[in-house]
Amino acid sequence: MPLLTRWVIRTALLYLIAGVLTGALYWANTLWQLWPPLRAFNPVYIHLLVVGWITQLIFGVMYWMFPIISKTNMRGSPYLAWGTYVLLNMGLLLRAVGEPWRTLDPTPINQALLVLSALIQVAAGILLILTVWPRVRERAGR
């Protein structure tokens, strides 16, 4: 298993834990009114689970398991793949900070933070496509 895949899958597992915990806090607060600021976890726990856990896990497995390009260039550019990992996590962490902050106290700064996080995540998606696209092809001999 490539080093990048190990990092991505471990990070995805951390996001699973974070997403489940923040979701549990949000829903417990919704039911029992524990602490009003916990209502800010609503969009965050979904992003942690969908982008952090599911998308990242899929990326890690794709990078590991998709067909190789060639014996000399098995998985394509490692720089694109690591760039995908860094940007995906940077964008998600910025969103995890900016989203609750914006919910509790909307300011131009946290609005800009959310826009920046979205742009970084779009860039990560583009790098993901560039990383995996050359490996999606018809099987030789068919």
How many strands?
A: 0
Fraction in beta strands: under 5%
Written as H for each helix and E for each strand, in order along the chain, the element string is: HHHH
Biggest beta sheet attributes: none
Q: Structural class of the secondary structure composition?
A: mainly alpha
Radius of gyration: 18 Å
Tally of separate domains: 1
Query: Number of helical runs?
Result: 4
How far apart are the termini? 28 Å
Name the helicity range: over 70%
Molecular structure report:
With 142 residues, the chain is an all-alpha fold. It has one domain (3-135). 75% of the residues lie in helices and 0% in strands. It has helices at 3-32, 41-65, 78-104, 108-132. Helix 1 (3-32) packs antiparallel against helix 2. The mean pLDDT is 94.
What labels describe this entry?
single chain; 142 residues; mainly alpha; 75% helix; 0% strand; elongated
How is the secondary structure organized here?
Blueprint: H1 3-32, H2 41-65, H3 78-104, H4 108-132
Helix pairs in contact: 1-2, 2-3, 3-4
What is this structure, in a nutshell?
The chain is an all-alpha fold. It contains 4 helices and no strands. The chain starts with a helix and ends in a 10-residue tail after the last helix.
